[in-house]
Structure prediction request, 185 residues.
Amino acid sequence: MTDHTPDPTVGHERVDTTKSLADPAQGAAHDVPVFVDLVGGLRACMLTTLDHDGAVVSRPMAVQRVDEDATVWFFAFSDAPKIAQIQARPQVNLTFTDGDTYVSASGVASLVDDDAMKRELWNPFAKAWFQCEPENPAVALIRVDPRHGEYWDSPNKPAQVIGLVRGLLGHGTPADGDNAKLDLG
Prediction:
């Protein structure tokens, strides 16, 4: 069997392949506030579940809230396939982006039967989407407790362009932003 791993020395100076590795997680006390700061204001993310055959299924979801402990809350129709998928296999992944920052977090999802929490998280957008009140059994409340993650906080677009031009002119490598793993609990 042939190894098809590119040789970083072929036709170039030796490339430092460790440069793009994510910084290690620093522990939940440090990483949870970083996660909350990165995604707390975002209104949407991709929720990934596993279906009954083990296939990966992703769909966009409206984030209702991100708590200070990194808990992420969603509403869904109670008869949606994602509900059965969460009940069968609660391991999920969340992916967030705002154009310059990318965050992925894996964790455990659960369904929460709590009308008071539903009312607390309910908003005009949820009412418009579900066309009912939060206590209606057609509305499911999903709680995701992220455990691990990784983020890339890239430079803004002007800094990326300037860095690319500098790199092309041989005046240094483009800035790649911050990339780190997250320990979320």
Notes: The chain has one domain: 28-183. The first strand starts at residue 44 and ends at 50. Residues 56 and 121 are 28 Å apart (CA to CA). The domain at 28-183 is CATH 2.30.110.10 (Pnp Oxidase; Chain A).
